[in-house]
Amino acid sequence: MKIKVGVIFGGATVEHEVSIISAIQAMEHMNQDKYEIIPIYIDKDRQWYTGKLLTDISLYKDFEDLKRYAKPVVLYNKKGKFYLQSLGFFKRNVAELDIAFPIVHGNNAEDGTLAGYLDTIGIPYVGSHVLGAAMGQDKVVMKQVLDAADLPIVDYTWFYDTEYQENPDRITNNVKKLGFPVIVKPATLGSSVGIVFVKEEAKLDEAIREAMEYDTKIVVEKAVENLVEVNESVLGDYEYQSLSVIEEVMSTDEFLTYKDKYLGNGKGSKKTGGSKGMASTDRIIPARINEKLQKQVQEIAIETFRALNLSGLCRIDFLIDKKNEKVYVNEPNTIPGSLSFYLWEPTGKPYTELLDDMITIAIKDYRKKNQKVTSFDTNILNNFDGIKGVKGLKGMKTKLK
Questions:
Q1: What is the pLDDT of residues 157-198, one digit of tens each?
Q2: Which CATH class is domain 3-127?
Q3: Residue 185 and residue 376: Cα distance in Å, rounded?
Q4: Per-residue pLDDT tens for 62-76?
Q5: Domains of the chain: which residue ranges?
Q6: End-to-end CA distance of the chain
Q7: Cα 290 to Cα 197: distance, rounded to the nearest angstrom
Q8: Backbone phi, then psi, for 210, in 5-degree steps?
Q9: What is the pLDDT of residues 306-327, one digit of tens each?
Q10: Which tops the pLDDT comparison, 322 or 401?
Q11: Which CATH fold topology does 136-152+225-369 show?
Q12: What letter would DSSP give residue 337?
């Protein structure tokens, strides 16, 4: 019997279209002899849809037309079984799921939002859980955790948009202490959206205001000199981790831009509409770094994976000062573009096998969690004795008045 895999993608995020590309790539490569693939698309208004035609990317050019062929649904748990149910007066089960496979990117999706919902439903799912997903998305919290774990990060400062609006001079002075050039980023976005490289103070205000269009929290980092950007993908859980090859990513700018990542010259397949997503990025594999740096990247990648409570597959991006041979963690991608399959193929692991491994890890994790105590059979409310039982609350009521 095939395992029923619900591939969830889209969402109310600026990385909506990137998610569609990544998900359709993955669905193309899943072992259809082993899995029944059920596409689940979340539109920008947060409505969920399912239907076989959702695997064809060309239909997303005019989704209003696609709605004639896709069914709006909700996910629910009925006695430990998971169903997609149609909406309306005459509700019916459209599909049954065994496991969810989120392939979402960015805030309102990859940031733990979807993971928390799936945990509430109780369905097993692929990838990091709420804590890991949330820390991986928020660049400020991520840096604070990595700093506490004594892992290398670049010097930075951060602030809320209201703080800048109220006292821009104070924020500017903090940035000047870092020294120019700097990188200005929205704290909770990915895919290089809203990121600006700033060489001088005169351009700082414009960069900050651009970042504020996307996020309430802004991070400013000291730019790394003699920069080489490399990425390492990690697959596993808290017990065991395996590593991909290290890639060196090439950019026409001071950092890898959204255009570099997703608007490259990759031909892709007919289904993915001529885009390979992150697979289209210019890269050198393996990265042109010496053995010492390679070992540092690998060791730090595993430590970062564990420190941030990550699970499944992620890609950790690094900044290297090649002249001084210093390695810094840039950020983790808990659900990376194209699922970083191109980093695993050189290790002898084809994309189909990588997807299978991710699902296997999720099933193993689900079984382990079910062995832990998550609730008690006893019900303390059985002994609740009406008015007598609320006497202890009187003092609390007094305090609240």
A1: 999 999 999 999 999 999 999 999 999 999 987 657 789 999
A2: alpha beta
A3: 45
A4: 777 777 779 999 999
A5: 3-127, 136-152+225-369, 156-222
A6: 61
A7: 28
A8: -65, -45
A9: 999 999 999 999 999 999 999 9
A10: 322
A11: D-amino Acid Aminotransferase; Chain A, domain 1 (3.30.470)
A12: G
Minimal CA–CA distance to 60: which of 279, 280, 273?
273
> CA distances (Å), 89 to each of 78, 98, 142, 339, in order?
19, 26, 45, 39
Beta bridge partners of 332: 316
Q: 244 phi and psi, to 5 degrees?
A: -85, -175
Tell the residue number behind the tokens 């490289």, with chain if given.
Answer: 197
Q: pLDDT, tens digit, for every residue of 358-370?
A: 999 999 999 998 8
- Hey, is 207 helix, strand or coil? helix
The tokens describing 374, both together, are 């998550």
Q: Read off the tokens for 58.
A: 């060309």
**386 pLDDT more than 70:** no
Domain 156-222 has CATH 3.30.420.140: no
CA–CA separation, 145 and 308 (whole Å):
7
Backbone torsion region of residue 44, taken as left when φ is above 0, otherwise alpha when ψ lies between -120 and 50, otherwise beta: alpha
Q: Tell me what pLDDT residue 202 has.
A: 97
Our CA angle for 27, 138, 170, nearest 5°, is: 150
Bridge partners for 93 per DSSP: 85
Nearest alpha carbon to residue 103 among 215, 174, 8: 8
93 phi, psi to nearest 5 deg? -80, 120
Q: Which two tokens stand for residue 209?
A: 């205001």
